[in-house]
């Protein structure tokens, strides 16, 4: 009985709360004014460019006698190596890339088709390299946008390029594309006729498009006039572009950020079938690698050349890609040494590539 009495005297708070409706302890609530520090998030470390490649590019640029810019961008890792890559240098026919992209951008928007018919006439002829001129029969040649695009990129045909330029709206349309896509430090000139005549110190005349009339007219100029025009162009090229900007644009092209997938593949495949510059960067491409590119070559004055370029996309067997721009704005060195510089840049990229 004593045990029962003691048990009956035990105070059970659970029974009290239940029996008498006493409030339960409130659950813990965070003070809304209490400062909560964010949990630090780990950020991936940026991939560094290969030290060996950085040193190689630096050495190649410093040891070359001329105004040179080199840019190498890893399309996959995102790093960029540059020597003189922020200075605008003459593009010459490298600028045909921007015409081609503007054409394909218009195609993506449904404003034109590659099989749109175009007729080339004598009035369309420009100057220097224009193989399509030999196809004119009775003063004309019937073709398509696609054929002109192929010829402009793979043969660097000036007439094909300028006809496409007019077809898409002229230099203003290309400049609009460059600005809209935020391609950076890239200028676009007035087209081959005006670009080449201004560089030579001439005012364009239609008869310069035939035979060697342009070369003869240029030769008749006083040497002082030619030199002044040449120096003015090299110092501030109306078609100038920074190698870094070109390499970045090529990387974005390869990643599908500038054109539709179909137009991207079309353009890169066309660049890979290019027939120009076999002794420039292409000469150093090893077996198993692919390379799509566009060359550019300016006028000579004595031993100097106003623009000697090669830019392109180099792809390794494992699929990793590099956008490369080697631009020689002015140099007295012979073509063989210019070509060797370009080959050495490619060889350095390949030597420092990691195959995994």
From TrEMBL:
GO terms for molecular function: hydrolase activity. Residues 69-327 form the Beta-lactamase class A catalytic domain. Its EC number is 3.5.2.6. The keyword Hydrolase applies. Transmembrane segments: none annotated. Belongs to the class-A beta-lactamase family. This is beta-lactamase. It comes from Sphingomonas immobilis. The lineage of its organism: Bacteria, Pseudomonadati, Pseudomonadota, Alphaproteobacteria, Sphingomonadales.
């Amino acid at each position: 009985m004593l045990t029962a009495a003691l048990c009956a005297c035990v105070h059970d708070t659970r029974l009290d709360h239940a029996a008498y409706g006493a409030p339960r302890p409130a659950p813990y609530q965070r003070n809304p004014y209490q400062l909560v520090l964010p949990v630090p998030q780990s950020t991936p470390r940026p991939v560094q460019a290969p030290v060996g490649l950085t040193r190689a590019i630096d050495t190649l640029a410093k040891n070359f006698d001329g105004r040179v810019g080199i840019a190498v961008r890893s399309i996959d890792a995102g790093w960029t190596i540059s020597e003189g890559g922020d200075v605008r240098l003459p593009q010459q026919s490298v600028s045909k890339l921007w015409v081609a992209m503007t054409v394909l951008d218009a195609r993506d928007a449904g404003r034109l088709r590659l099989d749109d018919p175009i007729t080339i006439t004598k009035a369309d002829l420009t100057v220097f390299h224009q193989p399509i001129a030999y196809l004119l029969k009775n003063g004309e040649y019937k073709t398509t946008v696609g054929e002109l695009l192929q010829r402009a990129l793979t043969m660097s045909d000036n007439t094909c390029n300028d006809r496409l330029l007019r077809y898409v709206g002229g230099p203003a349309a290309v400049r609009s594309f460059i600005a809209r896509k935020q391609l950076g430090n890239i200028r676009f000139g007035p087209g081959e006729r005006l670009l080449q005549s201004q560089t030579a110190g001439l005012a364009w005349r239609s008869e310069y498009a035939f035979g060697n009339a342009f070369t003869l007219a240029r030769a008749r100029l006083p040497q002082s006039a030619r030199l002044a025009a040449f120096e003015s162009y090299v110092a501030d090229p109306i078609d100038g572009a920074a190698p870094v900007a070109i390499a970045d644009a090529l990387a974005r092209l390869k990643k599908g950020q500038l054109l539709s997938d179909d137009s991207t593949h079309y353009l890169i495949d066309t660049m890979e079938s290019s027939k120009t510059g076999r002794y420039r960067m292409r000469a150093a491409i090893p077996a198993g690698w692919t390379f799509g590119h566009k060359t550019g070559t300016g006028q000579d004055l004595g031993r100097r050349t106003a623009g000697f370029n090669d830019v392109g996309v180099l792809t390794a067997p494992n699929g990793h890609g590099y956008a490369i721009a080697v631009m020689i704005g002015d140099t007295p060195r012979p073509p063989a040494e210019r070509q060797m510089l370009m080959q050495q840049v490619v060889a350095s990229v390949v030597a420092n590539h990691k195959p995994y």
